[in-house]
């Protein structure tokens, strides 16, 4: 079983250093070009396409794979949305909120931002990964691609591979493979 995780293309909020979270910032022209470029890097031989419902992930998927979101192979999962940064969503990074990511990571119950706590987000990411694996196993699929967000992908990779410091640039592909009873990272 192979799962390819892809971080969405650049959004308007990425470009302007805006905290997105679940704020639905669209792809900008660079992000659309990144999705087109991604087309050259991947084979469209996936049994299933999964995506966050946020447009920056969903549009990256539809552009890169030349697929309509109404296609039977395309499914949106709410669990793949980025962390909810509450009152800081759609706000410019500032002195007041620049340490937000670190605080959420260091204190799993921190919720000054009135969004998801770190522990809630980790549980959601764990649950959506379990859901993905269940779908793959129950439908006997071999290769799945998942379009999501940096925080989600990082949290899932940390859970299954125990990697601490990982960073995903826009449209980076992270492939994991399950064989011999364990997950491994595979170079794409």
Characterization of the model:
- By secondary structure, the chain is an alpha/beta fold.
- The chain has one domain: Phosphoglycerate mutase-like (Rossmann fold, 3-Layer(aba) Sandwich), CATH 3.40.50.1240.
- It is 36% helix and 19% strand.
- The protein contains six helices and eight strands.
- It has helices spanning 12-15, 29-41, 55-65, 100-106, 118-138, 150-161; strands at residues 2-7, 18-19, 48-51, 74-76, 91-92, 143-148, 173-179, 182-186.
- The strands form two sheets. It has a six-stranded mixed beta sheet. Strands 2-5 form a two-stranded antiparallel sheet.
- Strand 3 (48-51), helix 3 (55-65) and strand 4 (74-76) form a beta-alpha-beta unit.
- The longest helix has 21 residues, at 118-138.
- The radius of gyration is 16 Å and the shape is globular.
TL;DR of this structure?
The protein contains six helices and eight strands.
Q: Percent range for helical residues?
A: 25-40%
Order of SSEs? EHEHEHEEHHEHEE
Q: How many helix segments?
A: 6
Low-confidence stretches: none
Q: Mean of the pLDDT scores?
A: 94
Q: Hey, roughly how much beta strand do the residues contain?
A: 15-25%
Overall strand count:
8
Strand order of the largest sheet: 4-3-6-1-7-8
Envelope shape: globular
User: What is the CATH homology-level superfamily?
Assistant: Phosphoglycerate mutase-like
Q: Specify the CATH class.
A: Alpha Beta
- The CATH architecture is 3-Layer(aba) Sandwich
Distance between the termini: 15 Å
Number of domains: 1
The helix-and-strand class reads alpha/beta
The main sheet comes to: 6 strands, mixed
Rg to the nearest angstrom? 16 Å
């Amino acid at each position: 079983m192979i799962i390819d995780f892809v971080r969405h293309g650049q959004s308007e909020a990425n470009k302007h250093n805006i905290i997105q979270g679940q704020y639905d910032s669209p792809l900008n022209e660079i992000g659309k070009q990144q999705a087109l470029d991604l087309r050259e890097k991947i084979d469209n031989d996936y049994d299933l396409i999964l995506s966050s419902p946020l447009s920056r992930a969903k549009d990256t998927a539809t552009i890169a794979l030349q697929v309509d979101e109404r296609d039977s192979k395309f499914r949106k999962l709410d669990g793949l949305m980025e962390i909810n940064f509450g009152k800081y969503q759609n706000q410019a990074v500032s002195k007041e909120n620049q340490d937000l990511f670190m605080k959420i990571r260091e204190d799993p119950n921190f919720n000054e931002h009135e969004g998801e706590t770190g522990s809630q987000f980790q549980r959601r990411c764990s649950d959506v990964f379990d859901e993905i694996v269940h779908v793959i196993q129950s439908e006997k699929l071999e290769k799945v691609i998942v379009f999501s967000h940096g925080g989600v992908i990082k949290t899932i990779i940390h859970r299954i591979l125990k990697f601490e410091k990982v960073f995903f640039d826009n449209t980076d592909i992270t492939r994991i493979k399950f064989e011999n009873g364990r997950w491994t990272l595979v170079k794409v």
